[in-house]
Design goal:
Largest sheet: 6 strands, mixed
Helix content: 40-55%
Structural class: alpha/beta
Distance between the termini: 28 Å
Number of helices: 19
CATH architecture of one domain: 3-Layer(aba) Sandwich
CATH topology of one domain: Rossmann fold
């Protein structure tokens, strides 16, 4: 398996190299040269397998020769052994057709753990064979930071610098990052939005002088290995609800388009996906792009769903590239135009291709709260606000989907991470699981910096370890 950049001019890499690289050198995102394809019999054979065995079979074509099957199995066993539920990502039924796929049973209570627990082990495995020190630089709207920090804290040959928007993540999200006091962990609160933080991370990857000194890598969903790991739970849920004999629809709360793009990958691999419902909050660039072709940024509005308070969805580029006949030079020109003007119109081919699989919905605070109350009153489920946005979108589009098709909403975080929002909507203040421990009595450590690239770059350069 080889990986190519969406912008066409970076060298093709194997799985090991693409995992360590993160962002492509031409500013694009890596994507497989061709999608592996499973037959109906191969998908049917996943029924009854453990999550680890499902992961091995789904990810093996992407890993190629970088890892043997036994080695991949051992890494998956270690990664998912830290989850509190033996099913890793269990399904919960809400009514006759709506289901939740619970993705929050990992150590930091969010779906990011599913990929990042494995990614941390992949980094360690690949670095053990190299005389290289890795500098991870990431931006987080809430959950990626804590999951990534948990996955790499204390690991040899790795430093992690995580940027989060000051005051725009929940207190639980912040503390999960800032109370991890391992010497290789560095938290930076940016006086700005997530988009400001994400733009600075991309600028550091594009800085040749900086990348010449430090071996940069990414833990955001721009890293292909992270998306690959997320493909697994679509297959795991799908076969339990009747695939390949029955199609499944998925509703995905999303901001950066990574989680829902993993569903697109599963569909390209042969999983019968009836619909992928993209659920946004009022920061609705993805809804506008999919419904009208207008991919243009607005002002970020802080909401009760901070992980979705995003106006630039990095992974959308992967979809546009795949739908646009994989023409790297055309994609580069399209994205360069967007980066200059902050506005872009999708081509007819991109719009028509997306319409075959995707639907979208913009969910405001009232609709989110109604979904939270419905889940509690009718199904006894306490949802976090992001999951509630996904469920509201699922219900919005339910009448357009064959009633025989089950609709699975991805439950992306534990409700205890967003206690205030849940209490406002339901009157119930959820607790945190015992496995989180004494989060609110631990010391915090982070620095607050202005949203100034030069200031942030200098701060990181003073503390990062050169690549060799």
């Amino acid at each position: 398996m080889r990986y190519i950049s969406t912008r066409g001019s970076a060298p093709a890499l194997d799985f090991e190299a693409v995992t360590l690289a993160g962002l492509a050198s031409d500013g694009g995102l890596y994507i497989p040269e061709a999608w592996p394809r499973f037959s109906a019999d191969e998908i049917a054979a996943l029924a009854g397998l453990s999550y680890v065995e499902t992961a091995v079979r789904v990810m093996a074509p992407f890993v190629g020769d970088a890892l043997g099957e036994d080695e991949l199995r051992a890494l998956c066993t270690q990664a998912y052994g830290r989850f509190s539920h033996d099913a890793v990502t269990p399904l919960v039924q809400l009514d006759h057709r709506h289901w939740l796929l619970e993705l929050f049973h990992g150590p930091t209570l969010a779906f990011k753990d599913v990929a990042l627990q494995l990614l941390g082990l992949l980094f360690e495995r690949f670095l053990s064979q190299r005389d290289t020190h890795l500098t991870i630089v990431g931006a987080t709207s809430g959950d990626t930071g804590s999951a990534a920090i948990d996955a790499v804290a204390g690991r040899a040959k790795i430093d992690i610098f995580m940027l989060h928007p000051a005051g725009r993540v929940s207190d639980v999200q912040r503390r999960q990052m800032t109370t991890m006091l391992a010497p290789n962990v560095h938290n930076i609160a940016i006086e700005g939005s997530f988009d400001d933080a994400q733009a600075m991370v991309k600028a550091l990857f594009a800085d040749r002088e900086f990348t010449g000194r430090f071996a940069l890598s990414a833990v955001n969903s721009i890293n292909w290995a992270r998306l690959m790991a997320q493909v697994v739970y679509y297959f795991y849920a799908g076969v339990r609800l009747g695939a390949p004999g029955k199609a499944i629809a998925f509703a995905v709360p999303t901001g950066n388009f990574g989680d829902v793009f993993a569903g697109y990958v599963a569909a390209q691999m042969g999983l019968p996906v009836e619909r992928l419902i993209v659920a946004t909050n009022v920061n609705d660039i993805l809804h506008r792009a999919l419904s009208t072709g207008d991919y243009s940024t607005g002002q970020v509005v802080p909401t009760a769903t901070p992980s979705m308070d995003i106006q630039v969805s990095s992974n959308f580029e992967r979809l546009l590239f795949d739908l646009g006949a994989r023409e790297g030079s055309a994609m580069a020109a399209q994205m360069q135009g967007f980066e200059a003007s902050r506005a872009m119109k999708l081509t007819n081919a991109q719009r028509e291709g997306a319409a075959k699989l995707f639907a979208s919905a913009r969910i405001d605070a009232d609709a989110m709260s109604l979904a939270m109350r419905w889940a509690n009153e009718r199904a006894g489920q306490i949802l976090d606000p992001h999951t509630a946005v996904g469920l509201a979108a699922a219900m919005h589009h339910a009448d357009e989907i064959d009633p025989a098709v089950p609709i699975v909403t991805l439950a992306t975080a534990h409700a205890g991470k967003f206690r205030d929002a849940v209490e406002r909507a339901t009157g119930i203040r959820p607790g945190l699981p015992a496995r989180v421990g004494s989060l609110f009595s631990r010391e915090e450590r982070f620095v607050t910096l202005p949203a100034d690239l030069n200031v942030v770059k200098a701060w990181i350069a003073e503390r990062a370890t050169p690549s060799a």
